[in-house]
Amino acid sequence: MKTVDIIGAGLAGTEAALQLADRGVRVRLFEMRPAVGTPVHTGAGCAELVCSNSFKSMKPESAAGMLKHELSLLGSRLYACALASKVDAGGALAVDREAFSRRATQHVDAHPNIERIVGEVREPDYERAPDAVIIASGPLTSDALAQWISGIAGADNLAFFDAAAPIVAADSLDESILFRQSRYEKDAPGDYLNAPFSRDSYEAFIDALVSAQRVIMKEFETKDLFQACQPIEEIARKGIDAPRFGPLKPVGLADPATGKRPWAAVQLRAENAEKSAYNLVGFQTNLTFSEQRRVFRMIPGLEHAEFSRFGVMHRNTFVSAPGLLDRNLRLMRSLPSPTFIAGQLAGTEGYCEAIMSGVHVALSVFALIEGRAMPSIPSASSFGALLRYATDPATIDYQPMHVNFGIMPPLPERVGNKRLRYAAYAARGAAAFESYVAELKAAGLL
Ligand code: FAD
């Protein structure tokens, strides 16, 4: 029986483990938690979500929606767990994070081909001669392993700080001020709670936000900010109206108290199926905890908010994929066993992207150890486009990235209308991916 060692039971590692185990491969899945923690994980289970509970849009004509379609065609085990753990979130897929991790852990622990081993891996155990190694230790890879990776990669890992949004207890919110509504759906019950600002209350809030005390001021470098998770105070620093055109945009909302669109609005999204906690959408921050309590209680309806979790700052570790990894995310270095990198450490960004990289690496590893040719993932698909970008040696100053239409190969003809253009990307990607799936099946990989 072939053996694969996987380091990290996060999103990518858990998915890869289940995929390989389902194909009859013996997997040793190493996870350092709970023996060694990270600054943000709180549990001991597999596939823990560390920030938002959203897997983003389900809309087929969005890059995030395309990725979900691809995950489902490849039979992603964690995507199935996400669907089974979903909570209401309008057109997005959001999950009850505990139920999601519990399901994933149950699948892993019940699998006869997976051995889950708790403990920090400081470097792969090549002496046991695994048929392949997958490193999926994520953006918070332990220092010892990061040092080993940096040694063999021949280049330094990049480490930078990232920001996570606070979570507030539902029963501490003033629902006489907040209103429940999804954007552009004022007549439907709505999945979000919205905190409406008047112009005066908004300006007072922004003043307080930009002058509030922050942590990690010295190490914090704007150029290194994780673009998709930029701290709210950094956005506010760009100009008083910047948040109003970003996370606090009021478009598509009408406050039932006035019948009008508010000057600005904070959206709160349920964290769990019971709706007992809400996160402040787009409110990743590095304000000190006491300042978060003071400043965020200036948001209308949050005057008495109790914080279940404050926003925090994080390190983010990833390799410079271009020139280091091939399209199958295999390290192009001579190592005792073929070694692959999956998840955010490989330079992808986002929950679904990490899961998809777990599927992709599992298929690549399986093809390799079974001596079969791995079909090439089409660049017209959402994940194929991301891989093409991430592993292109011509890419300069690579930063982790979500799937997005900006990195898709251009359409044969220019489509001016944005909605039609996105639909064309999605249709082309779906057709290409279906052919890819057929090739995987023909090769006996799926
Ligand atoms: P992880 O899910 O982090 O899994 C890696 C696992 O490896 C962890 O369980 C860790 O304990 C373990 N590990 C680390 N080192 C070792 C070692 N030496 N030995 C054994 N085990 C080890 N993406 C989104 O789409 N939405 C978000 O809201 C979002 N928020 C984020 C917030 C933060 C703070 C960070 C850092 C990233 C965020 N991301 C977000 C990006 C990314 O999607 C997630 O980090 C995602 O979990 C990455 O999946 P992964 O499998 O690569 O890593």
UniProtKB/TrEMBL annotation:
<comment type="similarity">
    <text>Belongs to the MnmG family. TrmFO subfamily.</text>
</comment>
<keyword id="KW-0819">tRNA processing</keyword>
<feature type="domain" description="MnmG N-terminal">
    <location>
        <begin position="4"/>
        <end position="371"/>
    </location>
</feature>
<keyword id="KW-0520">NAD</keyword>
<dbReference type="InterPro" id="IPR036188">
    <property type="entry name" value="FAD/NAD-bd_sf"/>
</dbReference>
<dbReference type="InterPro" id="IPR040131">
    <property type="entry name" value="MnmG_N"/>
</dbReference>
<dbReference type="Pfam" id="PF01134">
    <property type="entry name" value="GIDA"/>
</dbReference>
<dbReference type="GO" id="GO:0002098">
    <property type="term" value="P:tRNA wobble uridine modification"/>
</dbReference>
<keyword id="KW-0521">NADP</keyword>
<feature type="binding site">
    <location>
        <begin position="8"/>
        <end position="13"/>
    </location>
    <ligand>
        <name>FAD</name>
    </ligand>
</feature>
<keyword id="KW-0963">Cytoplasm</keyword>
<protein>
    <recommendedName>
        <fullName>Methylenetetrahydrofolate--tRNA-(uracil-5-)-methyltransferase TrmFO</fullName>
        <ecNumber>2.1.1.74</ecNumber>
    </recommendedName>
</protein>
<keyword id="KW-0285">Flavoprotein</keyword>
<dbReference type="GO" id="GO:0047151">
    <property type="term" value="F:tRNA (uracil(54)-C5)-methyltransferase activity, 5,10-methylenetetrahydrofolate-dependent"/>
</dbReference>
<dbReference type="InterPro" id="IPR004417">
    <property type="entry name" value="TrmFO"/>
</dbReference>
<keyword id="KW-0274">FAD</keyword>
<dbReference type="GO" id="GO:0005829">
    <property type="term" value="C:cytosol"/>
</dbReference>
<dbReference type="InterPro" id="IPR002218">
    <property type="entry name" value="MnmG-rel"/>
</dbReference>
<comment type="function">
    <text>Catalyzes the folate-dependent formation of 5-methyl-uridine at position 54 (M-5-U54) in all tRNAs.</text>
</comment>
<keyword id="KW-0808">Transferase</keyword>
<keyword id="KW-0489">Methyltransferase</keyword>
<dbReference type="GO" id="GO:0030488">
    <property type="term" value="P:tRNA methylation"/>
</dbReference>
<dbReference type="GO" id="GO:0050660">
    <property type="term" value="F:flavin adenine dinucleotide binding"/>
</dbReference>
